[in-house]
Structures are given as structure tokens and as C-alpha cells.
């Protein structure tokens, strides 16, 4: 008797089977209504026409997937910057976007002052390191063991400081990325395949390669080195990590510096695709749905999430966007992420956090 | 010790007060508030415009000692192209008794229009803002010279027809509109839709969300699929250099890509490098510093170190638009002074001055801009002028005028303006009825 009384009511919604069933039912309902409303056009346009297009023009499909892949890798790289800092300090680093701008502006600004391109890269890395140390000293150290929301708000502060500081130093004028001086390739490789032309921009290939290498290196660094282990300890608990002699300050400098490197590479790659201006800050926020999807704490999550969002949003925009007037990319990413969340609330690879009351 | 500190403080205070009052007492002046965005994602377009405006006003103050001896106090309010901030700027401008409000974004203009009709402050939205505000009967306080986005869209269609060999050749062609997904970007759609119906061409829309300004990959794939014959780019800020780069990347013929005047900045085209050659944009101000007024700016402002503009940027396309806007303000003041007989005018006088502004070729010549900008006439009912514009082309280093001055399709645009103005007024509810009397054109 008592056993039954204490047993919690089964949460039906938690079962994936029930969820799938519900969603299928919803789709069927929408379909049924759709068929009633108009028997051919809408449904055809949603469920048949895009796939016909894919079959009829496979070259465009390949091109779309390629574009999605490149953006996906770049999103993954940005997301990685967030994940590292989230793991180490438990905050969503709102300043990541402006760090991208700041790093790119420093690089281009130095070059304009006459510093050779590669030396400028080295100095920019130095600047990002100095920034990491400063942030650790001035912002994070006084806030150890404070609630996460305080640290989160502090990153807003960093953002506004860097916007003002960057504008004071470099002005608001857009600048050209020094892609050529850094020996980034120009032009495109045109492939005649599948009865059409698929054009792969060399800069995109380079971006995908560099970003992949970077991601692999970071993943290995944090998985297999002592610092990586220390980082994971810090992620679990600041206090526990301190008690076993891990230097919180050192870890923080390392992750913020790494985030700075990621920011610089992101800045170079996106800067080369358009120009270096404060608008780049917005690009970094593209990582938000990636993080929701992949989980804030997982490096593989950032990678897989980036690819899913990148390819998903490009395919969605290209094949289904015209149905509702286009320009759906910016919210489609969140839509995809939410779809996944329905099944895995902690994100694809996120840690399941169970808090007992 | 304490008293001496107090004394020192008082003395210092008095000194500051005197310093603040001194210029106001020394000379008559009028105050002009201008929204600027030298920061944020749109600063690339905002900086040259602000520079051009400031330099022209400084030149008038330096060379002539102001407008008929009245100095124009020019002050910028930084909006970062954020409509919320622009409302703060509006309130600030109002409290300082600005003679005219210069919103510098379509969103800011839309927010200010209802307020300005109550506060009785003229809005000067030069070639941007609400197209239907060109109807002076319903919008006595808004001015949109020398033309509206709707005029621009009609010239784009004319240009397309000219390239194809006649209006009858438009049938079955495709025109794509890449536009910022914001009030500014959506402005030309109604006119283009009407013209598409009338001439039998197809209109394809390619909206770009502000967050994806620099991420236009899939949009250009759609363009590749749809193969539009011409593209009209209603873009702003970082969206433009990205579009030019993407066009080059996707092998879209550059001479078929035409930007609205705001997509015709030097930095916009420069981003595309060698491949951007042939990119076009509508315009009404010639680039360069050949005009006598521009020479005066160089002589009285830039060479004397009174400008923040690097010398090589003086005369760029957007800079010269800023000059034109400042010129409208100065000529508006001059006209108001003539009408009222006052030297120091207020906002209501300025409205009268703008409403009967007649910038003929001869008048433009007198102020050193003859042949370099479009003449325009504003009247009581027509607050825009629907003036001529031209197509300019990027030659790899600078913008050059291509072809003749083209008249917008006024017979297409005007009825739409009047019917939309009526809609606006009806929707607004108790919109104040025009009570201001009309001037005779000067």
C-alpha cells in the first residue's frame, strides 16, 4: 500500500515514445487541416517540390550542403569559444562576439600602422593574452564563488567596455581583412559534377580546414592534457578544484586566452567573407542555437551542433524559405535547436543535471 | 581652509558658467540636431554622412560667419542606428529647440513622425523615411527631398528597361530585390509590385535579416537558382559590402546589380576588389571635390584642421550626400529668414522655409553646387520634389556618373503616395488636420 502511495506518478511526457507519438499526431493533424484547406498546392510545395528540386538539380544541393558545411564549421568554432569559458567559469560569455571584432580590428589596425601581416598576428595574439590576464585579474578574480548570474552580467560589462575601447582605438570605419597578406587563397575551384557547376571558394575550403584543425587541436588539448583535466575539475566545482590545488586563476587565463585565439580566427575568416566592422559582433551570436543544440558543456556537442545548424539552416532557407518569403535563416536555427531540445533537454551531448530537492 | 575651498569652488563654478554663456551672448545662432551613427554595425555608412554634414555646416560658419550672420550650432546625437535611442535623441533635440530634426534612419523617422506633428518640429528625411510623407497636405511637418524610395524603385525599373532596350522588353523578365528586413528595406516593395504587374515582369524578394547581414550564403544560392535578370539592392551598412562580395563570388554579372543610393558607398564597393568593377548605384550627388562648394570645404575646414575627415575621404559618395543634406538645412534657414524677416528663426519658421524651398540650377550654381547635385522644388503639397537622379558606376576606385539624369515615374508614384498617406492618417486615428497655411514658392 504505502509503496504505491510514495511512488511518483509516471511522467508520460518524459518517454520518447510518447513524445514521438505526440509530434507525429501533430504533424498528421496539420496535414489533415492542410489537405482540407487546399488539396494540392501548399502540401506539394512543402513535401514534394523541394525534394524534386534536389533530385533535378543535384549540383545546387551539393552547393547548398557545402555552404552549410562551411558555415557549420565556423559556427562550431565560435561555439567552442563559448563552451570553453562555460566549462571553466560556468558563464555564458556574452563578450565572445565583441572579442571577435576586437581581435580582427587589432590585427587589421596593426597592419595599417605598417606592421607586417604575420607579425601583426603574433602581436594580436599577445593582445588577446593580455586581455585574458586583465579580465581574470580585474573581473573574474574578485567574483570567485559568486552566483553565476553575477559573472554573466560581468561579461556584459566586458562587452560594453570592449566596444567603447575598440571604437576609441580603431574608429567605427569598416576595414578590409588582410586576407591576401596572410596568404589566404583567393578565387574558386569550379567542379563540373552532377550535370552542373559546383563552385568551391578557396577561402571557404581554407576556413573549413583551419577551423577543423583548430577544433581538433582544442578538443585534444582539453581531453588529454593535465590542463584539460584541471579544466574539467574547475567546471565541476570551483571550491573542489581549489581544494585539490588547482589554480583557478591560471585556468581562467588559459581558457580566456584560448577563447581569444578562437575569436581571432573567427574574425579573420568572417572578416574575409565581408569586412571587419562592429557588425561582426552579431555573427558570434549565431553560436547560441548551436550551444542550445549541442549543450553548453560539450566540445563534440559544439562541433556536431554547428554542423547540424549550419547545414540545416542553409537547406531550410534554400528549399523551404521561398514558401514564406525567405529570410528564415535567422530563426530557423533556433527552431532546429528547439526541435532537438524536445527530445534531449540537456542538448545533444550536454550533461544531464539532476538537482535533488 | 574650508572657506577658501568653497571660494575656489564658487570661482570655478562662475568661470564655467561664464564660459558656457559666452558664445551664446556673443553671436546669434540657431541649433540643429543631427542623429549620427559613428558606432555599431551601420557605422560604415554613418560616418561619411555625418562627416559631410558637419564639414559643410562648419564651412558655412567659417566662410560666411553663418547663414546671414547667424551661426548654425551643429550637434550630433549618437544612435548607433537604434530606433530606441533615436527617440531619446528626438527628445533631446526638442528640449534644445532644434530648428529641424534629422533622424538618419527610416525607423527613427517613422518613430518621430507622430511626435513631430504634435511638437511642431520639422523632420528632414533626405531621400529616406516614409515615402508617403511626400504628401504635404497630410504630413505638413515632414520633408523628404529630393525624392522617395518609391521614386528610386521606379528609376530602377526604367534603368532595367533601358538596358533591355525598351519598356516593352520588360515582359517576362525577373527583377530581384535584395533588401534589409527592416522598414527601410521594405519601402520599395509596393511600387515594384505595381510596376511588375503593369509591365509584366516578375518580382522576387530576397530579405536579409539584420543578424544575417554578413551571412548571405543561402540567399545568393537562391539567386543562382532563380536567375533574376537584374538585382536591386536596398541595403545598408555591412550588408552592402557582403552583397557585393557574394555577387562576385557567385558570378552574378556585376553590371546587373544596382544599389539604392544608400548602397552606393565607396567602402561598400571597395570590399569587392577588382571584381566589383561595374557595380551600379542610383545617385543624385556627383562624387569628388570638383564642385566649388567642395573646394571651399577643403579650404576653410579640412586644410585648417577643423574636420575629423581624412582628406582622401572628402568627396566620397556618401560624404557628398551628407554635404547635400546640410546644404538643404542651410538653404531652408536662409529661405525662412527671407520669409519671416527674422534673423534667428525657430522650428515653425524653418518649416515654412523648407516648404517653399526652390533649388533651381541657377541657385545651386550660386552656392557652388551647380551641375553636381539634382535641382529640386518643394511645394505645399509635394514635400519631396520627385527630382531627377542618375545611375553611377564603380570603376574600381571611385563612383562615376553613367548616363543621363532620369526622371522618376511620378505618375506611378504620386497616386500611391496620396492613397498611402490617406491610409496612414486614417489608421492613426485623430491625426491633426493641416492648419498651416501655404507659402508662395520662392
Automatic annotation (TrEMBL), chain A:
Report any Pfam family annotated for this entry.
BPD_transp_2
Topology versus the membrane, per the UniProt entry?
Answer: Multi-pass membrane protein
Q: Where in the cell is it found?
A: Cell membrane
This protein's major location comes to membrane
Q: Which residues cross the membrane?
A: 12-35, 68-86, 91-111, 117-140, 149-170, 205-225, 246-270, 290-311, 318-343
- Domain of life the protein comes from: Bacteria
- InterPro entries this protein is in? ABC_transp_permease, BCAA_transport_permease
GO molecular function terms here? transmembrane transporter activity
* A biological process from GO: amino acid transport
Keywords assigned by UniProt?
A: Amino-acid transport, Cell membrane, Membrane, Transmembrane, Transmembrane helix, Transport
Cellular component, GO annotation: plasma membrane
* CDD domains tied to this protein: TM_PBP1_LivH_like
Instruction: State the family it belongs to.
Output: Belongs to the binding-protein-dependent transport system permease family. LivHM subfamily.
Output this protein's name.
Answer: Branched-chain amino acid transport system permease protein
- Organism (species): Bosea thiooxidans
Q: What is the lineage of its organism?
A: Bacteria, Pseudomonadati, Pseudomonadota, Alphaproteobacteria, Hyphomicrobiales
From TrEMBL, chain B:
- Which Pfam families does this chain map to? Peripla_BP_6
Signal peptide annotation: 1-26
| Leucine-binding protein domain residues | 36-396
Keywords, ordered alphabetically: Signal
Q: Which InterPro entries match?
A: Leu-bd, Peripla_BP_I
* UniProt superkingdom: Bacteria
Q: Which family does it belong to?
A: Belongs to the leucine-binding protein family.
PANTHER family, from UniProt?
Answer: BLR6548 PROTEIN
Q: What is this protein called?
A: ABC transporter permease
Q: Identify the species of origin.
A: Bosea thiooxidans
> What lineage is this protein's organism placed in?
Bacteria, Pseudomonadati, Pseudomonadota, Alphaproteobacteria, Hyphomicrobiales
Amino acid at each position: 500500500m504505502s509503496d504505491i502511495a510514495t511512488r511518483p506518478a509516471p511522467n508520460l511526457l518524459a518517454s520518447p515514445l510518447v513524445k514521438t507519438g505526440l509530434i507525429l499526431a501533430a504533424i498528421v493533424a496539420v496535414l489533415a487541416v492542410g489537405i482540407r484547406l487546399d488539396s494540392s498546392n501548399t502540401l506539394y510545395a512543402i513535401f514534394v517540390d523541394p525534394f524534386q528540386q534536389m533530385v533535378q538539380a543535384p549540383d545546387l544541393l551539393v552547393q547548398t550542403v557545402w555552404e552549410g558545411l562551411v558555415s557549420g564549421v565556423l559556427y562550431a568554432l565560435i561555439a567552442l569559444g563559448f563552451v570553453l569559458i562555460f566549462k571553466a567559469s560556468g558563464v555564458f560569455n556574452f563578450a565572445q562576439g565583441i572579442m571577435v571584432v576586437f581581435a580582427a580590428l587589432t590585427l587589421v589596425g596593426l597592419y595599417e600602422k605598417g606592421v607586417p601581416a604575420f607579425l601583426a598576428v603574433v602581436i594580436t595574439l599577445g593582445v588577446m593574452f593580455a586581455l585574458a590576464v586583465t579580465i581574470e585579474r580585474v573581473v573574474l578574480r574578485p567574483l570567485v564563488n559568486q552566483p553565476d548570474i553575477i559573472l554573466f552580467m560581468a561579461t556584459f560589462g566586458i562587452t560594453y567596455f570592449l566596444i567603447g575601447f575598440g571604437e576609441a582605438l580603431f574608429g567605427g570605419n569598416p576595414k578590409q581583412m588582410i586576407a591576401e597578406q596572410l596568404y589566404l587563397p583567393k578565387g574558386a575551384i569550379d567542379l563540373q559534377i552532377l550535370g552542373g557547376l559546383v563552385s568551391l571558394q578557396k577561402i571557404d575550403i581554407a576556413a573549413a580546414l583551419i577551423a577543423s584543425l583548430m577544433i581538433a587541436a582544442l578538443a585534444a588539448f582539453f581531453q588529454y592534457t593535465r590542463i584539460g583535466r584541471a579544466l574539467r575539475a574547475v567546471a565541476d566545482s570551483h571550491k573542489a578544484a581549489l581544494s585539490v590545488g588547482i589554480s583557478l586563476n591560471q585556468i581562467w587565463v588559459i581558457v580566456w586566452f584560448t577563447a581569444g585565439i578562437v575569436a581571432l580566427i573567427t574574425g579573420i575568416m568572417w572578416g574575409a567573407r565581408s569586412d571587419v566592422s562592429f557588425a561582426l559582433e552579431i555573427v558570434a551570436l549565431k553560436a547560441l542555437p548551436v550551444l542550445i543544440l549541442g549543450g553548453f558543456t560539450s566540445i563534440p556537442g559544439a562541433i556536431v551542433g554547428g554542423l547540424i545548424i549550419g547545414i540545416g539552416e542553409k537547406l531550410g532557407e534554400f528549399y523551404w524559405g521561398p514558401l514564406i518569403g525567405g529570410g528564415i535563416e535567422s530563426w530557423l536555427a533556433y527552431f532546429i535547436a528547439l526541435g532537438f531540445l524536445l527530445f534531449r533537454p540537456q542538448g545533444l551531448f550536454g550533461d544531464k543535471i539532476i538537482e535533488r530537492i | 581652509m574650508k572657506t577658501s575651498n568653497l571660494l575656489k569652488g564658487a570661482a570655478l563654478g562662475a568661470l564655467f558658467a561664464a564660459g558656457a554663456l559666452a558664445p551664446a551672448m556673443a553671436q546669434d545662432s540657431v541649433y540643429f540636431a543631427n542623429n549620427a551613427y559613428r558606432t555599431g554595425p551601420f557605422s560604415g555608412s554613418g560616418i561619411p554622412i555625418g562627416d559631410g554634414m558637419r564639414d559643410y555646416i562648419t564651412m558655412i560658419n567659417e566662410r560666411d560667419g553663418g547663414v546671414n550672420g547667424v551661426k548654425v550650432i551643429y550637434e550630433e546625437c549618437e544612435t548607433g542606428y537604434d530606433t530606441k535611442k533615436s527617440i531619446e535623441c528626438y527628445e533631446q533635440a526638442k528640449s534644445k529647440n532644434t530648428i529641424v530634426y534629422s533622424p538618419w534612419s527610416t525607423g527613427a523617422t517613422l518613430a518621430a513622425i507622430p511626435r513631430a506633428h504634435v511638437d511642431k518640429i520639422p523632420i528632414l528625411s533626405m531621400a529616406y523615411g516614409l515615402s508617403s510623407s511626400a504628401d504635404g497636405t497630410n504630413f505638413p511637418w515632414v520633408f523628404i527631398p529630393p525624392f522617395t524610395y518609391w521614386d528610386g524603385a521606379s528609376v530602377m525599373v526604367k534603368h532595367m528597361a533601358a538596358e533591355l532596350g525598351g519598356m516593352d522588353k520588360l515582359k517576362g523578365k525577373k527583377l530581384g530585390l535584395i533588401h534589409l528586413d527592416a522598414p527601410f528595406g521594405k519601402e520599395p516593395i509596393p511600387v515594384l509590385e505595381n510596376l511588375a504587374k503593369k509591365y509584366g515582369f516578375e518580382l522576387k524578394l530576397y530579405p536579409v535579416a539584420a543578424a544575417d547581414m554578413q551571412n548571405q550564403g543561402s540567399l545568393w544560392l537562391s539567386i543562382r537558382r532563380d536567375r533574376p535578370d537584374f538585382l536591386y539592392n536596398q541595403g545598408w551598412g555591412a550588408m552592402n559590402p557582403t552583397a557585393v562580395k557574394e555577387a562576385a563570388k557567385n558570378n552574378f554579372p556585376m553590371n546587373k546589380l544596382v544599389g539604392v543610393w544608400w548602397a552606393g558607398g565607396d567602402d561598400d564597393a571597395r570590399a569587392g576588389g577588382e571584381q566589383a568593377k561595374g557595380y551600379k548605384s542610383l545617385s543624385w550627388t556627383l562624387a569628388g571635390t570638383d564642385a566649388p562648394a567642395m573646394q571651399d570645404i577643403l579650404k576653410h575646414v579640412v586644410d585648417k584642421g577643423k574636420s575629423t575627415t581624412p582628406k582622401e575621404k572628402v568627396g566620397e559618395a556618401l560624404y557628398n550626400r551628407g554635404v547635400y543634406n546640410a546644404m538643404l538645412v542651410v538653404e531652408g534657414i536662409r529661405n525662412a529668414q527671407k520669409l519671416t524677416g527674422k534673423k534667428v528663426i525657430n522650428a515653425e519658421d524653418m518649416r515654412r522655409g523648407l516648404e517653399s524651398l526652390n533649388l533651381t540650377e541657377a541657385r545651386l550654381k550660386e552656392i557652388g553646387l551647380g551641375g553636381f547635385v539634382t535641382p529640386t522644388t518643394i511645394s505645399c503639397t509635394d514635400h519631396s520634389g520627385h527630382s531627377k537622379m542618375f545611375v553611377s558606376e564603380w570603376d574600381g576606385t571611385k563612383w562615376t556618373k553613367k548616363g543621363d539624369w532620369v526622371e522618376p515615374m511620378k505618375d506611378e508614384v504620386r497616386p500611391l503616395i496620396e492613397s498611402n498617406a490617406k491610409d496612414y492618417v486614417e489608421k492613426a486615428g485623430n491625426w491633426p488636420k493641416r492648419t498651416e497655411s501655404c507659402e508662395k514658392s520662392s
